[in-house]
Structure formats: structure tokens, C-alpha cells
Amino acid sequence: MSKDQLLAVVEEVRTAKALPTPKLARAIREAAGLSQGRIADALGVSRVAVYRWEGGFRKPRRKSRAAYAALLLALSAEVNGS
Q1: Confidence at 82, pLDDT banded by 50, 70, 90
Q2: Beta carbons of 17 and 65 less than 8 angstroms apart
Q3: Is 39 helix (H, G, I), strand (E, B) or coil?
Q4: Helix, strand, or coil here: 56?
Q5: Would you list the domain boundaries of the chain?
Q6: How many other CB atoms sit within 10 Å of the CB of residue 42?
Q7: At the topology level of CATH, where does 3-80 sit?
Q8: Residue 38 above 90 pLDDT?
Q9: How big is the CA angle at 72 (ends 4 and 82), to the nearest 5 degrees?
Q10: pLDDT of residue 8 exceeding 90
Q11: Residues 44, 62: contact at Cβ < 8 Å?
């Protein structure tokens, strides 16, 4: 594994750890004016998956977790004007 690949894995873990609570994730999505379906399409998962994540019934796994966390972080920054 190259140094760049190792750094990418570390960044994926760091981003995934930043995943907000389900309640906050829903609030971020709603503040951005996006539907669960739109989030699902962006992440390549089903709308039901996003519903379950936001309801606290399930947690996203692996790449979906990192991508979801990164998306919510970006949306939060947009909503808050950061």
C-alpha cells in the first residue's frame, strides 16, 4: 500500500468518526432543503437506508459511512455559511 493510499484510509476513518447523531444528520439535511431520496441518490444507496440512518435504526457502513459523513459536513458548512 502506498503512502497516499494509507493517508486516504486514515482520512476515511477520520471523516467517518465525524458522523453526527441521527437527529442532527436529519436537521442538517432538512436545513439544506434536501429530501432523503436526494441524499440517497448522491450516496448511491436507497432512500430507506437514509431513513434508517436518520431514525437511528441502522448505521451506515464503510464507504457509505465516510461518504455520508463528508456530505453532511459539507452541507453543514453550506447551511452555516462556513
Answers
A1: low
A2: no
A3: helix
A4: coil
A5: 3-80
A6: 13
A7: 434 Repressor (Amino-terminal Domain) (1.10.260)
A8: yes
A9: 90
A10: no
A11: no
